[in-house]
Design brief:
The protein is α/β, with parallel strands linked by helices. It is built from eleven helices and 14 strands. The structure holds adenosine-5'-triphosphate (ATP). Adenosine-5'-triphosphate (ATP) binds next to strand 2 and helix 1. Keywords: Amino-acid transport, ATP-binding, Cell membrane, Membrane, Nucleotide-binding, Translocase, Transport.
């Protein structure tokens, strides 16, 4: 909380974190999105104190990490797994050897280690690759090894540093599904950083947009989608560029049974001309968007009515 980090270089200083407050609920997937240099990596590395913030406190699973040092800190870190963009596998070790590595370091005996490695490889869908070397694997398989290794010490929290950025769209999809399944099955809490909005849309329950070391906006994704003026909502769902002066985009952040459009024509005597629309899955929920031309003298009343019903209405042509 209140995290601040300033890097002091020879000629200048860079404020990588400028008072960031991040609260991740237990069992949720939280995504921090932002452009290169926004401070995402510094934030992620502050959570397990690979980077010690200049100010602020870090609490993970009820334990205040910022007050720990030495062996206490090392023990706390073991309860936080980390997945890296470029996998960070040891090329001279087999898949099983890579996953076993953190267990060896913490002194787990051979039999127990082997059993655990077998279990983890099954969990990530690599049961048949134990003896392969990283160079024989695809990017997606390498990341599965990275995930299995991160889970070796039974962490409660998983940090993901651009885990899918080096992968093609199809593989990205399979890794995101895996992360989601692991969250569901193991009750993990996942904090991920990404520069891809799609990752937020696909698996995050909550998200923050970060720029210049600060959060511009944060909250539950579904709440933000229903919030007028939300930057995150606009980035997830850009307004269509074929809108005219009469066009509005209506977002349904949850499913409604009411036939709103026919109600509008009846109540407010407006003409509704549907231009396009669709339903997308966001954080496991369906979010509908409808782009319509609304015509008639009581157009503004119709828009107010939709807003009162809990729908988000944006003027696309402005
Ligand atoms: N060890 C360091 N020493 C000096 N400056 C650093 C260091 N690490 C990061 N910075 C600077 O801090 C700022 C935030 O960097 P950070 O890597 O956290 O951003 P990011 O959002 O993760 O970007 P990227 O996606 O490119 O990694 C940048 O201006 C960066 O140059």
């Amino acid at each position: 909380m209140g995290l601040q980090k300033v890097y002091r270089l020879k000629k200048r200083q860079v404020t990588a974190l400028n008072g960031v407050d991040l609260h991740v609920r237990s069992g949720e997937i939280y995504g921090v999105v932002g452009q290169s240099g926004a401070g995402k990596s510094t934030l992620l590395r502050s959570v397990n104190l690979l980077e010690r913030p200049d100010h602020g406190t870090v609490e993970v699973d009820g334990e205040q990490l910022t007050s720990l040092h030495g062996s206490g800190l090392r023990a706390a870190r073991r309860r936080i797994g980390m997945v890296h963009q470029h996998f960070a596998l040891l090329s001279s070790r087999t898949v099983a050897g890579n996953v076993a590595f953190p267990l060896e370091v913490s002194g787990v005996g051979r039999a127990q280690r082997n059993a655990k490695v077998g279990e983890l490889l099954e969990l990530v869908g690599l049961g048949d690759k134990a003896k392969a070397y990283p160079s024989q694997l695809s990017g997606g398989q390498k990341q599965r090894v990275g995930i299995a290794r991160a889970l070796a010490s039974d962490p409660k929290v998983l940090l993901s540093d651009e885990a899918t950025s080096a992968l093609d769209p199809e593989t990205t999809e399979s890794i995101l599904s895996l992360l989601r399944r692991l969250r569901d099955e193991l009750g993990l809490t996942i904090l991920l950083i990404t520069h891809e909005m799609d990752v937020i849309k696909r698996i995050c329950d909550s998200a923050a947009i970060m720029a210049d070391g600060e959060f511009l906006e944060s909250g539950r994704v579904l709440d933000l989608i229903g919030t007028p003026g939300s930057l995150l909502a606009r980035s997830l769902f850009p307004l269509p560029d074929n809108g005219g002066p009469d066009t509005v985009v209506v977002t349904y952040p949850r499913s409604f049974d009411q036939p709103f459009m026919s109600e509008l024509t009846r109540r407010f005597d407006v003409d509704v001309n549907i231009l396009g629309g669709g339903v997308e899955e966001v954080a496991g929920h369906s979010v509908g968007r409808l782009s319509v031309d609304l015509l008639g003298s009581r157009r503004n009343e119709a828009i107010d009515y939709l807003t009162q019903q809990g729908l988000l209405v944006e003027e696309a042509g402005q």
